């Protein structure tokens, strides 16, 4: 973590009857997303397959600096995130409930599921600011921070009231009678960045401090660590 | 082409019921093959899939030199190959004929199909010697040299009598009543290296000169370019 993205290598397997327009759309999507960071698809391979299979290797340039890994968190440091949390989980819940919103915050949640918006620039920024550990939130914040805690040999305590709830997440929770904080803490696929910083680092406003690194192990959510069995498997 | 292999990134999709021993065997194979060149599996990702799908990105280090591409061939240069040709095609033909050789050259052909032996060191060597174009022979020599001809805007003429026929290839051809030269010219999956060199380069004995670059287009096999319709699609 902390590299500037430079190129993708894409391996593509697909049946012979996949429409060319579908493949064109896939290529357009790769090109448009790469353009956001100045990268490009630099190569890959194509083969026939019974299923559509897409394998992507992303390459980046650390500019000679060491990568920011999962193992650098130390007690006393702060835990922060940048980007969106809970949007993709909210959008998926709406779609699974059979809803097809045509506008407003519910549509924004669905679009957050269909096309996440990773905060690309925040990775190199965090590295420059001295992040001690970092990863992207692909499996849910609690689970992914659990990887940091395990790799660093520390515990992490989160303050659930510190998380801003995006309007689309709040609207979807109201629509479905769900708990928006659960989506924020356990929903994956938004590809937010979670990072650990020394306490003296002054974070710009697009980073939100949500917890601290402590002695111990695993991830605790203050005030919600008991009686919410659904979260237990994220704290293994 | 011409880089020193450094690392593989492996994407692996598989059903949940794949035996662990199978996955261990796969990992062992990657490690053993990487050890031949001093590379290692540096990362990747795993996901569940209905089929076993393996996607590999190989990374290499050019040491600051420009890569040897397909587009550098010029008339007057010589075409040579290193490694094996026809072994994998001969081995596959034996297996498809229902033969299960237990030893001797027929088994060697089958093993050539099951585990190709790319001449890894010959790639950087060819680059150091000044190769003008190079690629590995994965789809068959005629087809792959056709890519060089097209990318370079030249023709290539091959001398079919210049190719050594490996004992396993000859034995399999005798067993099946097949033409060993066809396997050598059109068989893929041996991952030999084919390269084009300036005529003044003195090639070591593990490189065999088999043809020349000429003005024109496409790949011609001297004395066999007509009456062998099966090869036409390789010369498109």
From TrEMBL, chains A, B:
Which InterPro entries has this protein been placed in?
A: PurM-like_C_dom (IPR010918), PurM-like_C_sf (IPR036676), PurM-like_N (IPR016188), PurM-like_N_sf (IPR036921), ThiL-like (IPR006283)
Domain called PurM-like C-terminal: residue spans = 74-221
Identify the CDD domains for this entry: ThiL
Residues covered by the PurM-like N-terminal domain = 1-60
UniProt cross-references to PANTHER family, sorted A to Z: THIAMINE-MONOPHOSPHATE KINASE (PTHR30270)
What protein am I looking at?
Thiamine-phosphate kinase
Please report the organism this UniProt entry assigns to the protein. Nonomuraea recticatena
């Amino acid at each position: 973590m902390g590299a500037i993205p430079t190129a993708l290598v894409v391996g593509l397997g697909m049946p012979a009857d996949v429409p060319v327009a579908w493949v064109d759309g896939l290529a357009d999507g790769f090109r448009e997303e790469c353009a956001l960071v100045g990268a490009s698809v630099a190569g890959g391979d194509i083969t026939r397959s019974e299923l559509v299979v897409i394998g992507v290797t992303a390459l980046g340039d650390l500019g000679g600096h060491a990568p920011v890994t999962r193992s650098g968190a130390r007690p006393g440091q702060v835990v922060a995130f940048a980007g969106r949390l809970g949007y993709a989980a909210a959008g998926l819940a709406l779609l699974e409930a059979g809803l097809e919103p045509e506008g407003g915050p519910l549509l924004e949640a669905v679009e957050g599921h269909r096309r996440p918006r990773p905060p690309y620039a925040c990775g190199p920024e965090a590295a420059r600011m001295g992040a001690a550990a970092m990863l992207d939130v692909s499996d849910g914040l609690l689970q992914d921070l659990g990887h940091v805690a395990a790799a660093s040999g520390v515990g992490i305590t989160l303050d659930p009231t510190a998380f801003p709830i995006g309007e689309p997440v709040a609207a979807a929770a109201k629509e479905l009678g769900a708990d928006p904080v659960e989506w924020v803490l356990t929903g994956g696929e938004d590809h937010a960045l979670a990072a650990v910083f020394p306490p003296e680092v002054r974070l710009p406003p697009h980073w939100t401090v949500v917890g601290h690194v402590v002695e111990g192990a695993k991830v605790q959510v203050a005030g919600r660590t008991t009686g919410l069995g659904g979260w237990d498997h994220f704290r293994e």
